[in-house]
Specification:
Elements lengths: L6 H14 L11 H40 L4 H10 L6 H10 L1 H11 L1
Helix pairs in contact: 1-2, 2-4, 4-5
């Protein structure tokens, strides 16, 4: 008896991955082996960059806090040191948001730790 092959499933798998690679350049979008390799490598980039995104946002928050703190006559490190010394538990994300969107609240926090 001949070997039975599930063409429906294998075709569906290929079709699914080729659909995910639409918009890629050249053979990366329509040649099965190239598209599969590109898609797999894209998954590793996605994993890596989900972690890099966190780094980039933390760096952005620190730059914003530093800029706002210098307008108040403090450096970033002086401000963060004073916050910790006074027991004010506020994270960099919230502090950066206050610095950008609510200057009065940021100024009040700085005055509290001075």
């Amino acid at each position: 008896m001949p070997r039975s092959v599930n063409h429906v499933a294998s075709r569906a798998k290929r079709k699914r991955i080729l659909k995910l690679t639409r918009g890629y350049f050249g053979a990366r979008k329509n040649v099965w082996t190239v598209a599969k390799n590109t898609w797999e490598k894209g998954l590793t980039y996605a994993y890596r960059d989900r972690r890099n995104k966190k780094r980039n946002f933390r760096a952005l928050w620190i730059q914003r806090i530093n800029a706002a703190a210098r307008l108040e006559g403090l450096s970033y490190s002086q401000l963060m040191g004073a916050l910790h010394k006074n027991g004010i538990e506020i994270n960099r994300k919230v502090l950066a948001d206050l610095a950008v969107n609510n200057a009065a609240a940021f100024k009040a926090i700085v005055e509290k730790v001075k």
